Structure formats: structure tokens, C-alpha cells
Amino acid sequence: MCNKNGSPYEAPIGVFDSGVGGLTVAREIMRNLPNERIVYFGDTARVPYGSKSKDTIIRYSRQIIRFLQTQGVKAIVIACNTASALALEEVEKEFDLPIIGVVKPGARVAAGTTKNGRIGVIGTESTIHSHMYRQLISSYDPGITVYGKACPLFVPLVEEGWLKDPVTEEVAKRYLKDLLRQDIDTLILGCTHYPLLRSLIAGIVGDQVQLVNPAYETARELGCLLEQKGIANPGEKEPGKEPYRFFVSDAADKFKNFANSILPYDIETTRKINIEEY
Fold first, then answer.
1. Which residues of the chain register pLDDT less than 50?
2. What local confidence, expressed as pLDDT, does residue 2 receive?
3. Does one domain contain both 137 and 206?
4. Looking at residue 3, what is its pLDDT?
């Protein structure tokens, strides 16, 4: 069964990130859109993205999308806040398939969540310096004040698996104290690695601050997009086909072990590819 453009409903969703962080988005897609197949690419050879230039992030994103197109994907999710902030607008113009990022869904929900109009955003240096969350939230409600804080150490700590380590907790306290002084009542976890630190962060900011997880909001928005485009898979995943496929640019075994610790699905194989060929 095909849609009017000839793309099969059973075609997978392409999801990509600089490394393992985008697995939080893949996890939410698995939970909320169980009929959809996924092809995931983690750019583990070139992580982190947060300290790289806009031109570099756009080049990386183009290469990855070209690779995902070879896998027959029907839509792309940029499961990386940095790439969503710096590359989404550019690649949307260049590729003829639906592409969504993680920044807009998170910004919209945060704007609707805050009661006192004071929102905090934590993310990589590139995401914070892009002011993308601030601009989007202001477009929803110009009366909201947004406070950004770059937390560059969170990504390597998550990649190392130190999710509940005392070192990570101490780093988080130092990062978050400035935001808490601003009397925020909403905090956007503005990097897809950060939901893996959700319980630790929640314990520091307390019940008075609502945490917004863009990974969950992105999965919901993806579901709406697939319905609008007429390409949602209405049935169960096709028998005999891998429901989820995983590719990386380096360290396949390390990625697979990490993924199996957080996904509701056991990964048997992770394939390494040379992304520079695309």
C-alpha cells in the first residue's frame, strides 16, 4: 500500500543524532508510534556537535540525510538540538521529504506550560548561542523571559554512562544554580542526551520547576505529521523485516551496549558506516 507519492506506508522513519542522545527520541517514537519502523544513525565518530560551527553542522546533516535516503526513509527526525537549531532550516529547503527537529516541539510546550513566564533552557553551547528556543518561545508569547545555560559537560558524562554518579550531580548543581536564581518555573531539557539525566535534574530543581522533554513532544509531533502527509503506518510492522536498524560512524559495540541499556527493544547488531562517503 502506497501514498500518493508512491512511498510505502511501511517505509521507516530516519532518526539521527551526534551520538547516543537521539536514542531518547527513538525511544519515544517506539513507545508512541509502535507501528513505525526506524533507521537510526548516530554520528559517534564526530560527537559532540555542540562546539562545532554552523557550516560544519549543516555539512554533517546533509551527509547523514543522504545516507538515510539510501535506506528508503519516508521522513526524517533530526534528534539533535544543535542540528535542529543550526541546520533544519537549510536542509528543509534542499531535501524533498518531511523533516522535523526537536526544538520547535519543546519550545511550544514550554510556552504553554509556564505560569510565571520565566523559562530556563539547558543545552550545548551551539544550541544556547543560537537563541533558537528564545526566538521560538517569543513568537508564541513575547511576554515570556527565557534564560539559557550551556552545559557542555553533560554530553560526555551521559556518553560515559555516568547518569547517577556523584560527579554528574555536582556538575549539574553548578550548572543549574544560576537558572534557579532566576525563579524559573519551567526547564527545557534542550539536548537529547539530557532526558537520561531527568531524575537527577528533577531532584536538584525540585517540584516547583516543570521539566519539558522535547524528545517526547517530538514523537507526538511526528505522529501528527505522518497523519497529515498520509504516510502513517496504519498496521503492524511488516513481518520478516527488521523493525529498527542502527548505524554509527564509529564504536559500534559501545553504542549497542548503551542503546540496550535504555531502549525497550534489544539491539542485536549495530552497523558502522563511513559517513564521509555521503
1. 1-7
2. 38
3. yes
4. 41
C-alpha torsion angle, residues 82, 54, 142, 98 (rounded to 10): -70
252: in domain: yes
Q: In this structure, what are the phi and psi dihedrals at residue 269, rounded to the nearest 5 degrees? A: -135, 145
CA atoms 110, 111, 113, 119: torsion sign: positive
pLDDT score at 235:
78
Q: How many helices (H) and strands (E) does the chain have?
A: 12, 10
Reading across the β-sheet that carries 118-123, which strands appear in turn?
Answer: 145-150, 118-123, 186-189, 210-212
Question: What pLDDT does residue 160 have?
Answer: 84
User: What's the N-to-C CA distance of the chain in angstroms?
Assistant: 30
Give the model's pLDDT for residue 76: 98
Instruction: Give me the pLDDT at residue 51, please.
Output: 83
Output the pLDDT for position 156: 87
Rounded to whole angstroms, the Cα distance separating 274 from 220 reads 32
Q: Which three cell numbers stand for residue 40?
A: 537510526
pLDDT for 237: 62
Catalytic machinery residues: 80, 191
- What pTM value is reported for the model? 0.89
Contacts of the segment 164-168: beta carbons below 8 A, 24+ positions apart: 164/199, 164/200, 168/197, 168/200
Q: How far is CA 67 from CA 16, 87, 135, 151, 249, in A?
A: 11, 16, 31, 30, 11
Longest CA–CA span in the chain (Å) reads 55
How far apart (Å, rounded) are the C-alpha atoms in residues 152 and 162? 15
Is 8 among the domain residues? no
The domain in which residue 58 lies consists of 13-101+217-277
Query: Do residues 161 and 237 share a domain?
Result: no
Residue 193: which CATH number? 3.40.50.1860
